[in-house]
Design a protein that fits this description.
This protein has seven helices and ten strands. By secondary structure, it is an alpha+beta fold. The protein has a five-stranded mixed beta sheet with strand order 1-2-5-4-3. The longest helix has 13 residues.
């Protein structure tokens, strides 16, 4: 299997228990968009304990700060992105952009409650912005940067995966495998939209 630097970044975040959500172009790929992105965009919970775990994951990735501003919670709380470049052999050159507050998008705890969790072929578990939240986040960007041009008219609320003991809906992989070869399955609990 060809090493995938994005999966290395995601597995490092998971191993260090960083509360983060994949967003941006890479999340679009997992949802089936034909998008190309050279970086990994993460929404993170900007609390001390989580930022300490994030720093440990970035240290494992041998990530260096590559742009202004510096890695300071105050910058994250203001809505600034912090940019890193990885030097770990399995993620060499991968850029990681971290942010915690985005214009027009709910606070992280709300995003976390609506997240989508998926598992790749190699067993890496990834947490993504829910599709409706991803569309909102992408709408704050220029129109040419939105791979999924429209929002479905009736979008169900997405909640975290249910515990193994309860029932859950499993969405078929269908054609997403053509766009994201590392995609194996996506599971989520769907709440019915209130009439």
């Amino acid at each position: 299997m060809i090493p995938n630097p994005i999966l290395k970044v995601l597995s490092s975040m998971r191993e260090h228990r960083v509360l983060c959500l994949l967003m941006g172009g890479q999340a679009c790929v997992f949802y089936g968009a034909a998008e190309f992105s050279r970086d990994t965009d993460l929404a993170v919970l900007a609390e001390d304990g989580n930022l300490t775990r994030l720093q440990a994951a970035l240290d494992e990735l041998q990530a260096e700060l590559i742009a202004v501003p510096d890695f300071d919670p105050a910058h994250l709380h203001k809505g600034h992105a912090i940019h890193f470049r990885c030097h770990h052999p399995e993620a060499t050159g991968m850029r990681v952009d971290v942010m915690s507050k985005m214009r027009g998008v709910d606070p992280f705890p709300d995003l976390w409650e609506r997240r989508t969790t998926l598992e790749t072929q190699d067993g890496t578990v990834c947490d993504l912005l829910s599709l409706p939240d991803l569309v909102l986040a992408k709408k704050t960007q220029p129109a040419y940067n939105i791979p999924a041009a429209s929002t479905p008219k009736a979008t169900p609320a997405i909640s975290p995966p249910a515990p193994a003991s309860s029932s859950r809906n499993s969405l078929p992989a269908t054609s997403r495998e053509q766009h994201a070869p590392c995609f194996l399955k996506i599971t989520m609990s769907l709440k019915r939209a209130k009439a």
